[in-house]
Design a protein that fits this description.
Two copies of one chain form a homodimer. Chain A is of the alpha+beta class and 130 residues long. The first copy, chain A, is built from four helices and seven strands. The radius of gyration of chain A is 17 Å and the shape is flat. Chain A binds a DNA duplex (30 and 30 nucleotides) through α3.
Chain lengths: 130, 130
DNA sequence: TCACAATTGATATTATATCTCAATAATGAT
DNA sequence: ATCATTATTGAGATATAATATCAATTGTGA
């Protein structure tokens, strides 16, 4: 299965980068069809998956809501605003040795972890006057 | 809106406890209809929601897959086996002051956090050591 | 240019969860 | 206990996120 370069994959990656800040597959799709009305939703999902396999992007699975995709591949944590739903990077070191906090693995082999914060973003905190 | 006690809510809670280990709404539903063929799936979801509001159970949102529900209401973290998909409690202290690791909140008001581990459970690894 | 097969677009399907609404039933008042 | 009120249920529809199927298209090396 040799991977081929397609216009669609390039467009998905470009759109992800253009949108910035962790868009979902559907947000990328909605942006894409503005210029390319026949672009297929499944193609967005398929290419996001492939870009993850290639290593160009990272999938960030959210505890609630749709998966989000990130051009920044370094390990870092995320915070989700409970009002507007947007996802932000958290300015905090990645705890690569978090396993040392685990008292007893009970035979479980830990391979990865993720921390997701929730709260209210600066913008939503400022928008009190409804 | 005064809450009423119903047989259905009792059954949902009993079934959750009986199944143990963080069942999903559908797992509870599948178990329930064995004895109560007319039990409605939406009723399971509605009652799980209410039991969360009451405080009898906790919803544990997983980064992938369906929400899971937990009769243990204390704060603790979870690990999901990448092979069998089951969710286990992690034997590790809850980091209530995790906010101290955050360097700059950028105006974000952090209210909650969750850590989800992934890996391979003891059973799927095929050993029994702790 | 050609042949092969990876990829696409269209569509259907699955999984998770919520909503609508008439019928039912839990609760406090009588 | 009976009644009136209304929260709750069951049935079904709908919403959202993601994947599967498959013929047509297209990228790639020969």
């Amino acid at each position: 299965m040799i991977r081929r370069n397609t216009i669609q994959r390039t467009l998905v990656l470009e759109t992800l980068i253009k949108l910035g800040c962790h868009p979902t597959a559907d947000e990328i799709y909605d942006e894409l069809i503005k210029q390319h009305p026949n672009f297929n939703r499944a193609t967005v999902y398929r290419n996001l998956q492939q870009l993850c396999e290639i290593g160009d992007i990272r999938k960030r699975e959210m505890p609630d809501g749709a998966d989000r995709f990130d051009h920044t591949c370094s390990n870092h944590y995320h915070a989700r605003c409970l009002k507007c739903g947007r996802v932000f990077d958290v300015d905090m070191d990645y705890i690569s040795d978090i396993d040392k906090f685990i008292k007893n693995s009970n035979g479980f082999e830990f391979t990865e972890h993720d921390i997701v914060f929730k709260g209210i973003c600066a913008e939503c905190k400022g928008n009190h006057q409804a």
